User: Which sequence fits this backbone?
């Protein structure tokens, strides 16, 4: 098993892998925030992150399937960058993009820009960097990344409207 910190790989390749794997922290942050604040919004955000990932994977494998494969040269595209060549696997939509955009939208709305402008800017930059890393790693095309980002916004809007005051 290779390490994302393999000293023989270039620094930009390691950075791309680090950004891709950092998405795993997105699943932990709402639980930690709930433990600290006891605000139920964090649990709803966490459930939304799980559902966004599940819905994205369902669409990728059951709806689009082999109609929109990952680009030629796609490699190590799973959450922990360890699955080897995957250019013949489904890629539409990008689950990383959907999840990170859902996460960013949720916490931007929760924190509000006026109160925490630096955190808001940080969330937007983080989401953009994760999406960029997916493109640079050749895990997705621009269209797959864009579709994932749109899915993240749509699911955020849907869950926000569904849950109303709880969210």
Assistant:
């Amino acid at each position: 098993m290779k390490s994302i910190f393999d000293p023989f790989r270039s620094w930009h390749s390691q950075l791309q892998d680090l950004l891709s794997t950092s998405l795993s922290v997105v699943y932990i942050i709402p639980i930690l925030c709930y433990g600290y604040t006891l605000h139920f919004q964090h649990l709803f955000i966490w459930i939304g992150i799980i559902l966004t990932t599940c819905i994205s994977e369902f669409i990728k494998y059951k709806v689009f399937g082999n109609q929109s494969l990952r680009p030629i040269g796609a490699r190590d595209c799973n959450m922990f960058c360890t699955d080897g060549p995957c250019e013949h696997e489904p890629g539409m939509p990008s689950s990383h993009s959907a999840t990170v955009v859902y996460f960013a939208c949720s916490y931007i709305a929760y924190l509000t820009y006026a109160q925490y402008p630096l955190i808001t800017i940080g969330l937007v930059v983080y989401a953009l960097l994760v999406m960029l890393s997916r493109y640079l790693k050749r895990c997705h095309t621009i269209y797959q990344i864009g579709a994932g980002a749109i899915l993240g916004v749509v699911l955020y809007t849907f869950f926000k409207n569904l849950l109303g005051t709880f969210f």
Remarks:
- The radius of gyration is 16 Å.
- Confidence is low (pLDDT under 50) at residues 1-5.
